[in-house]
Structure formats: structure tokens, C-alpha cells
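Hey,
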Amino acid sequence: MVRSQRVAGRRTGSRARRWGVPALAVVIGAAVGAVVGGVGSVGAATQPHIAEPGYRLVAGDGGIFSFGSNFLGSAASDPATCPPNTTDRDMPYGECWSMATMPNGTGYWILNAYTGAITAYGAAVSHGDRTASNTGGADLWPDSVSMASTSSGLGYWVLNSDLSGMGSVAAFGDAVLHGDESSATGGAGTNGMPVAIAATPDGGGYWTVDSDGGVFAFGTAGFFGSMGGQPLNEPIVGMAATPDGGGYWLVGADGGVFSFGDATFAGAMAGTDLNAPMTGIAADPLGGGYWLSGADGGVFAFGSAPFLGSMAGSDLRQPVFGISTAWLGVCVVGTRPLGSAGIRAYC
């Protein structure tokens, strides 16, 4: 059930900037996905501790807002990293549309959708990006719309939206390329635009999702269903995998949540009078819940996911484009597995 604190995701203050929902939803529907890393092993602590992952929001200017997680830096401190771009692209809300968190939460990356540049913070290390291949003029560059960490944190996948509207995946570091929409469809095209990529907990595969709800599974990722071909009130904007990789959730710009596989539906914001469209979803790695993020910085927690705060009501320079959390890894102390609903596992 949704907790009362979650009304914090709705803007009530007069100082907050109102984002143009129809225009922003078009940008979000073509580019935004919340990404969580895969499961990686965590060294045993001297004393057992309760693991609480927290979450981070990323804004179009590269701003990072941390709740229950350490703040390790942001691109907003350098206006040249994620500037608004209305000359070469329709990116008036900034060029940074996605981030990914290392599995142990000690670092993260911010992705520039226009240049494809990846900036690392904390313990995260850059393993490359597509900037070296940006040739032939900016009009020929794809948009880099989403990224996901490998289970080791030593690599990542980047989902690009090509000029044809097809989704292509690039692998860096120890990430292995298992295919993408372009290879799966033989270039025949799809009905939506690529919006998000999510990795499997074992690091052996990934899913991509389009704005029409079509889901593509690669490597060890299982296909559990999609919203492709189904009527949607608003485009799909994000995807999150369950902690065991046996299912996933999709979220629409109107706050609708769609569950597949072993993903449990714990609530949604569809039908609610939102002040801004939803932009992403992240799974609670220690339970069966999830968080939704809104463009105004609102956060809505469902199921076992704890509400830890939001930016709703704040005067943001640019809207929030996604939400990310760490997958804390395999429990090394205690016997309760990750994914048990309502359990805060000792790790």
C-alpha cells in the first residue's frame, strides 16, 4: 500500500517551477529510463549491519539528489557538462538524461544523451563511451538514452536511439554485447522509441524497452511479457528488474505501472492528479517494492520500498529525468535472501 508520505511527490508549494507536461512527456517518452545495477558480491563487514540502499535522482543539468545514499558529486557544478541544447537537438531541459549506480553503491555514472560522454563519480571508473566515434557531424549522432551497470561494476551498457529510431546497445568495460533491437528485428523497425535498459542480476543479459511498451530480452534475460500492441494512456518511460531477475516493472509517464514475471504490482500513480509526468522507476533490492520518480523531483514509494525524501516543491533548475539505486549484492551474513518482501536483510 502507498504510504501517506508519498504525497510529497505532488507539488504544493508556489515557488516550484511547473514543467510543461505535454512537451516534457515527449522528451521523457523518447529518452528516460531509471536504471539499477546488477547484483555483485559484497565483502563481509566486521559487524552485521542493516542494508538500506536509498536512491538518487538525476536532473537534466546533471544534478544529483541523494536520499539514503551518499552524495558523490554531480555534473551540475560544471555548466558545460550537461547544458540545454536547442541548436543541434531538442534538449531544452539539459543533455543528461540517465545515470547508473555501481552494484555496491560506492559510485555512479552520469550519461550525456547528446555527446554520449560518461562522467564517473565516487569509486566508479570510466570504461569508455561513444565520444571517439562521434564523426560525420552532430546530425548523424544517436541519442544515448539510458545505461546499466554490470554485476561487477567494472563495465556498463549504453542504450542509444539511432537516427532510424531503433535501439542499439554499446558495451564497455566487462560488459558483453548480447544484441539489440536492430539485430533482433533485422532493422525492420519498431512502433516505439527506445527509452530504457535494465541489467539482469547475474550480469549475463539485459532488457530494453520502447515507449510503446515493447520489451526486448538479450543474453540470460528472460522475456516475461510486454505492453507492446496494448493501448497506453501515456508512453512508457522506465523499466526496473526484480532482485532475482525473474521479472520486471514498466512505468508510464502517467504513473501507470505494469508488472511481468515475478514482479508484484504494489501500486501506481495512474489516475492521480500529478504536477509533472513520471520519469523513471527503480526496484527496492531488499524487497518486492519500487520507487517512481517525477519530473518535478517527486518520489513515490510502493510495497517494501521506504520513502526517504524527494525534491518535490523545490525550485529545480532542470527537471528530474530518472531514479537509480544500488543492488547491494549477495548476503554474506544471515540467511534471509534478497528479495524477501518486507525484509531488511543482514549483509
